[in-house]
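Q: Could you predict the 3D structure of Kinesin motor domain-containing protein?
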Amino acid sequence: MSRLPVMSNKRVLPSSSSETSQDFAPLQKKSRSDAEPPAKPQAAATVFVAKRPVAAARPNVSKAPVKRTGAATVASGPSRGVLRPSAVSTAARGGNVKATTGAKVVGGTKRPPWDLKGKVSDMEEKITNYQTRVKSINQENEVLKGSMAQSQKRTFEMEKDLQIHMRKIGELEKRVALLSGVEEELVQVSTERDTLHKDLSNLEGKYKIMETLRDSQEAELQILKMKLSVQESSLARLQQTLADTEEEVRSLKETVSQQKDELYAGEMERRKLHNAIQELKGNIRVFCRVRPLVNGGLSKHIHLASDDKTSISLAKTEESHTGKGTDTQRNYNFSFDRVFGPQTSQQEVFEEISLLVQSALDGYNVCCFAYGQTGSGKTYTMEGEEFHESRGVIPRAVQQIFKASDKLSSQGWEFTFTASFVEIYNETLRDLLYTGKADKRPDHEIRKSNNGELTVTNLTYQKVSCEDQVLGLIALANQNRSTAQTAQNDRSSRSHSVFKLDIEGVNTGRDVKCKSALCLVDLAGSERMLKSQSQGDRFKEMTAINGSLSNLGIVIAALANKESYVPYRNSKLTYLLQNCLGGNSKTLMFVNIAPEPDSFGETLNSLRFASKVNDCVIGTASANRK
Ligand SMILES: Nc1ncnc2c1ncn2[C@@H]1O[C@H](COP(=O)(O)OP(=O)(O)OP(=O)(O)O)[C@@H](O)[C@H]1O
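A: Sure. Here are the predicted structure tokens for Kinesin motor domain-containing protein:
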């Protein structure tokens, strides 16, 4: 923005030359007294500076030479044709009048001192010159006054103009100030605009990136939409498949439920049939097992029919009493439910009793005895040996029971098993699963509760859930027996051992329970000894053994004859086994026989005892189901 030019109003004072001041001093005083009151000294001395040259403006003073000074400037134009006083005085003095001190020169001639007249004339001339000059100065002064008035007027106008201009300038300056504010704002705005431009450009960059991103995301979205659509169609297919499958599962569940019902009905039917078969076979059965000869080979006096697995005959050659006749051979024939020869394996023996073991899971009490003289193979039959193939009835029965219970669990059955192992020696009970100190062994009593359940006080009843646990218990029982054996020679032959597995089954779905017991008994050696030969402890042992074994026969016979009183209490063995022997049980007796000729008598006795048992028919067993 351009500013308007400001006019200078400098005041120019008369020449400061001392000479000029001295020369004009009287004239100035005089002119004041003669003329009108002087104007303000400042106004009189004010000269406006102009560009016009001085000579052209001064016609009335052209005769006098003008001494120019740096400050002698004349205003231009006719109204301004004012000569400065200094210039006028200089012009006056510039004449040839040299009224100076000393010898006066007139017409180029110096007057002698005595020429007073001449001198006066010179003085008069000089005065006249001065007067003329004063006149002209006065005139000039008048002119100057007029000029000065004009100038003052002009100055006044110009001052007015100046004020107007100044006001305008003030306004303009205000506007300029405003404009400068606006300018600053404009600069700020411009800066902001630049910043905004930058931001905009950044945003544009970002926008482009976002656009690219958006494009890629849109592309991704499209792909995802496609995938979703594919997934949706797959889902629809899967839902349909699921619905179909669910329908199928539902119908299969119905089928399974029906089949479960059928299975349950079938299982019940199987139990009925199974029981019927067992009943047809007799609720008390006797199996005869012949031990092989210790040195191998065949026994000469024991004959087993190759085509009949139920009969056995003992042959004995009897010398003629008269001595006249030849020796006669006497045969003792016996028939049992099954006769096992010396070569029969443990597996074959067990297969014959496995159906009976199954009955225990069906809720029937099952009791299995091994009867026979010492060394005839009772323990081998019942427990067997560690070698897998040589395992006896107890471990195999336990294995079958656990396998069968696992199968029945799919039909909703849950079983719990409790094992106990007791020894009866000299009519005293001993816990074979006892693990405490030997001198702290407790006494045991057989107790019968009101509901007919038998328990032995202080006896170890061990919960078992697998075959291995039972095998561990059998090992513990053998250890307990061998400890007793060292103290008392051949004790195991003189005691009965009773392994009992209590079985409880629950079918919550069908609200059925069953309870039974599987008793596996290894009886004491059955050999008879002549009373005269038995003494002391051995006599006592024999009495106890014979008593319990004969009592066993009596009980079985009483049961067979359906006698009102069955003397279970006569021995600890029958009292302990009463629930397994009674009408509600299935009983199997192994009669083990030794094939050696010197065991003939004991073998015959054993077969006779077993035959008596075999002839017994115990009443129909019923399952303990609620
Ligand atoms: N069927 C068999 N096959 C092979 N060996 C057998 C058979 N029966 C028994 N034995 C063997 O005969 C011996 C005597 O058998 P075991 O101990 O079982 O007789 P036991 O009747 O239990 O005698 P005890 O009354 O003294 O206990 C054992 O060494 C046993 O291994």
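Q: Anything worth pointing out?
A: The first helix runs from residue 18 to 34.
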